[in-house]
Input
Amino acid sequence: MTNTGLPDGGTPDRWRVRFRNSKESNKPVRKIFKNPIVAFLVDILTIIATALVLSLLIKTFLIRSFYIPSGSMLDTLQINDRIIVNELVPNVVPIERGDVVVFRDPGGWLGPVEQKAIPLTTQVTDWFLSAFGVTAPDSDVHLVKRVIGIAGDHIKCCDANHKLTVNGVELTEPYIKKGESPSAVEFDVVVPADSIWVMGDNRGNSEDSRFHKDLPSKGFVNKKFIVGRAFLITFPFAHFSWLDNYSSVFKDVPNP
Output
């Protein structure tokens, strides 16, 4: 005997009827999913949903896209170039001299930011697309510069040859825009802990660390403001290339 009170293998009639009815009720659903067109659409939707989730995770923790709103990094980066940024820098991967970095305004660098009237539909679309790294509507409130000095570095401009020195080593900077000098502004600074000193490659048209020494940041960028290191130009396709950090320029610079 079983605990049903029926002989072994026995099944109440009402259970058999209910089971049979449940199988019958599921037949239309099974037929729908056996339809090749419906099955194809379900597969496509599943692939799209998976891709969007992966894109969201990648954008949140690994990389994201920005566009270049100004000419401060000419000729390395052109206005409206789109770049990919490694967000593991500097919290997981250490930042290096020569890196091109994207960072949030450390305070007062951008001045008053003009608030543009944006239609609600555009705001919603930008929010959704930016969540997956397709657009970068906040690029205007970020800055892109090259790292010249890291924590502890002594940076000075200029020596007898009109070049920058880092920890006493003279730099020959091939990334500077043709026709520009290393700096028309003299300075002598030591980079504090957890910070960097940055300059644009278009030295004559870059509001970089040199011009913000009167602010609370003293012209330095604390690592908490750094979004990551730019490593790839993706658009326009004619500009597609890897971004060099010119490690050879800094290879002889000793640690502070």
Q: What stands out?
A: Residues 1-7, 125-129 have pLDDT under 50 and may be disordered. The longest strand covers residues 226-235. The longest helix spans residues 36-61. Residues 13-55 form one domain.
